[in-house]
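FORM 12-B: Structure-to-Sequence Request
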């Protein structure tokens, strides 16, 4: 067989430049706003989502791709005679992985390998880029999958949320928790552990100082990280904040590559603006 094909869903939050450089094709998830349903990344932008949400005081509903969209996405790749590895958002959060399995069954294609990333955003993206690099080196699908088994649980994905309003609108925290957090200016840290989101430390203060403190407190963990790359992923933060975090991490002289990406529509729908996280793989 030829080179292994690497695919992912839109929640991996890789930039168009990275997708192009690594030859990654993306299956969009669905975002419903009122009576309209659009495809993440191709038909709706995060800023449009924020505008609609603020105007209506509602949060969009997000969903896995339709089986029809998954079949249409997968079919052209099945004709290339290659093994295919698909990386999807945590199965604890979405049915996307299972939709892809059903699409392969529908097409009677036996060489699709679906990976439950047990993560979201660039926690998926890290796994996708690593797999793509291994595929380019000529490793087989089984070898790439074995490597992922080694690092899957070592992906560290967390982020600080500026406001609980979006999580509250989406039914992910109580009105009381929202009121308390916004009144006391609390900025919760959201951690992804074994594929599920949970609340970590709660910070207080303006978002700039909170985000810097959140990253500084990870310094020892960062020193024990895989040195290939780290992501700074945000949902529309000020450039000054992003640059301060980039410089702080750069000054640590740990990572060969510091990648900055903006979260896509699905992730932004749930976290709202001014969210930022650092995502890496632990050794």
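FORM 12-B RESPONSE
SEQUENCE OUT:
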């Amino acid at each position: 067989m030829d080179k292994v094909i690497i695919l992912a869903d839109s929640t991996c939050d890789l930039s168009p430049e990275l997708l192009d450089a690594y030859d990654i094709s993306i299956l969009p998830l669905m975002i419903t706003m009122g009576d309209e349903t659009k495809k993440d990344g191709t038909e709706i932008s995060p800023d449009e989502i924020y505008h609609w949400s603020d105007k209506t005081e509602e949060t969009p509903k997000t969903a896995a791709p339709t089986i029809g969209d998954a079949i249409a996405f997968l079919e052209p790749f099945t004709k290339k005679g290659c093994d295919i590895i698909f990386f999807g958002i945590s199965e604890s959060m979405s049915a996307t992985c299972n939709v892809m399995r059903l699409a392969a069954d529908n097409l009677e294609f036996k060489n699709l390998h679906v990976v439950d990333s047990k993560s979201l955003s660039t926690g998926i993206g890290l796994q996708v880029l690593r797999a793509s690099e291994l595929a380019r080196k000529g490793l087989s699908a089984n070898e790439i999958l074995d490597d992922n088994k080694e690092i899957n649980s070592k992906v560290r994905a967390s982020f600080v949320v500026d406001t609980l309003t979006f999580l509250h609108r989406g039914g992910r925290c109580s009105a009381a928790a929202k009121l308390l957090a916004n009144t006391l200016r609390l900025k919760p840290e959201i951690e992804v552990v074994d594929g599920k989101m949970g609340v970590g430390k709660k910070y207080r203060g303006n978002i700039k100082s909170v985000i810097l403190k959140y990253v500084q407190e990870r310094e020892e963990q960062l020193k024990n990280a895989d040195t290939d790359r780290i992501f700074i992923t945000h949902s529309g933060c000020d450039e000054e904040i992003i640059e301060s975090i980039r410089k702080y991490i750069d000054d640590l002289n740990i990572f060969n590559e510091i990648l900055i990406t903006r979260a896509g529509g699905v992730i932004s729908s749930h976290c709202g603006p001014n969210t930022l996280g650092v995502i890496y793989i632990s050794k």
